[in-house]
Design a protein that fits this description.
Elements: H1 36-41, E1 78-82, H2 94-102, E2 107-114, E3 120-121, H3 143-147, H4 169-172, H5 177-185, E4 192-197, H6 206-217, E5 224-228, H7 231-240, E6 246-250, E7 268-271, H8 273-278, H9 282-288, E8 292-295, H10 301-310, E9 314-317, H11 320-330
Parallel strand pairs: 1-2, 1-9, 2-4, 4-5, 5-6, 6-7, 7-8, 8-9
Antiparallel strand pairs: 2-3
Length: about 325
């Protein structure tokens, strides 16, 4: 997604697990996917909405969302850590994801890009300039080159005024998706994983192909979802692994999506929080269309409260512990 913390002006975030897991091998040489595991990953996803939100439209002085009642049978709102606990640790770092799991996040969110030698790495921006001490496009660099860069020293640990002389590799090394999958598998509890494919890219469909293979090779106890702003990318996922839930991300609400409908095959709407501020009724329309609603990036207290009132299904946040605590107080 397009919001998030970062040092310089410009674009990307990455991190890693070298000496905390190493610049793990990518997907090269993996067996062709059977998709049996991938189909099972979607078993916990609701493709429909079990009940309609109740609206009392008799009061013309209050917005309709003010009257939304979240019924008792609704599941609690899931809290998904945006690039890990990225308020406390460098985004997309192994340390940020460990912290998010410790903070009780229901799931983790990451962006993936394909390197020149075929490895999926967790980096948000097309170029490494913003969150590393290097320059260049991720797609033009090999994993070994990325592993030499420092992706985390720009963000000092919360408990220290200055960056330590000896940087923690779990905060500074580029993180491969394979290493993140191993972390989630070893979490000791089911943790969901929401993976965003970044487009456009020179590798186009190879991103989805490698991603599906890697997921089939690393089954997880929690649910795995694929997200993208690109309907074409999600279509590729459907063709390769029809059982995997997909989230259609939206920065703006186009006229064809205002009714709550999504591109064919997508069961989850992913609106930015700005959409809900402008059009809170969208959540009810999406639910009536049979879709879950996962909202990004929800950090501020008024936005958390709005999402709770509207009955969204998940919030994606840089502050998982803080947001979990607020939702608990809101009941």
């Amino acid at each position: 997604m397009r919001q998030g913390p970062g040092p310089k002006a410009g674009g990307g975030g990455g991190r890693g697990g070298a000496a905390g897991g190493g610049a793990a091998a990518g997907c090269s040489g993996l067996p062709a996917p059977s998709f049996s595991v991938l189909t099972a990953l979607s078993s916990g996803t609701r493709q429909g909405y079990a009940g309609s939100l109740s609206h009392d439209l008799s009061d013309g002085h209050k917005p309709a969302w003010h009257h939304v009642a979240v019924t008792a049978d609704r599941k609690p709102i899931r809290v998904i850590a945006h690039r890990g606990a990225s308020e406390d640790a460098p985004e997309h770092s192994l340390a940020a994801y460990r912290k998010a799991i410790e903070d009780g996040a229901d799931g983790l969110e990451c962006d993936v890009r394909l390197t020149a030698d075929g490895h999926l790495v967790c980096v948000h921006d097309r170029r490494v300039n913003r969150t590393s001490n290097g320059r260049g496009a991720v797609s033009a660099m090999e994993l070994a080159q990325l592993a030499e860069l420092d992706f985390g020293s720009w963000k000092a640990p919360a408990d220290r005024a200055e960056t330590p002389d000896s940087a923690d590799p779990e905060r500074t090394t580029v993180l491969t998706l394979e290493r993140l999958l191993r972390l989630v598998a070893d979490a000791g509890r089911p943790v969901d994983l929401a993976i965003e494919t970044k487009h456009p890219t020179r590798w186009a469909g190879q991103v989805e192909e490698r991603l599906v293979r890697l997921l089939d090779h690393h089954p997880l106890p929690g649910e795995v979802r694929i997200m993208s702003f690109s309907a074409r990318s999600l279509r590729r996922v459907h063709l390769a692994a029809p059982g995997v839930p997909t989230v259609f991300l939206m920065q703006f609400l186009l006229p064809r999506h205002r009714s709550g409908r999504l591109p064919p095959g997508n069961g989850i709407a992913g609106p930015g929080i700005r959409i809900l501020r402008r059009d809170p009724e969208y959540v009810a329309r999406a639910h009536r269309a049979g879709h879950e609603v996962h909202v990004w990036t929800v950090d501020d207290e008024p936005d958390v409260e709005l999402c709770a009132q509207l009955g969204v299904d998940a919030v994606i946040t840089n502050r998982p512990r803080t947001v979990r605590d607020q939702l608990a107080r809101l009941g």
